[in-house]
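To: structure subgroup
Subject: Chain for Friday's discussion

All,

I'm putting the inputs and outputs inline so they're searchable in the archive.
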Amino acid sequence: MFAVLADVRNEAGIEPIDYPRGLPSDVSSLIREEYQTFKDECCEGEVHSASWFTLKELLEFEWDKEVIHKGVVCEDTYRDLRESGCLIPSYFYRWVEGVHNDVLLSMDQMNDILDGKTERNPEVEYSVEMTWMESHASKCSNFIYAMKKLTELSDSGDLSDVRIVFWFDN
């Protein structure tokens, strides 16, 4: 979702809705103060990519587009996913090198070990770099639900009257 909203943590090369715009010029004093407090007291130097979108802009985005995702999972997680027939992990590491000093394998290499075609080294722990296709809507399902609820906030029916304001921290 971070990649879709503001090109944040975008290892997959997803085309974001837009790049960070900063806080809107007419943002409420409450939100401006909340942002400044968060920036000064909670995460000094760690706050970035403040932006905003109207609900109209959010709903016009191509949420059903499928993109390639990458992530690293431990061997047990990979085995469970493979056995379930659903190779879309709900949790994974973003980093593809040096995870817990494990030996990092491709999905094919791990399949060969699990299928007994390649000998397992009992001295190491394995991690698997996975790739999978998933739609933005699937990846951001809670946000999709929130957008549907936001449509109820527009008194006039003009979806440009409703907006979200957000920022990220490290």
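Points worth raising on Friday:
Residues 2-63+140-169 form one domain.
The longest helix spans residues 29-42.

D.
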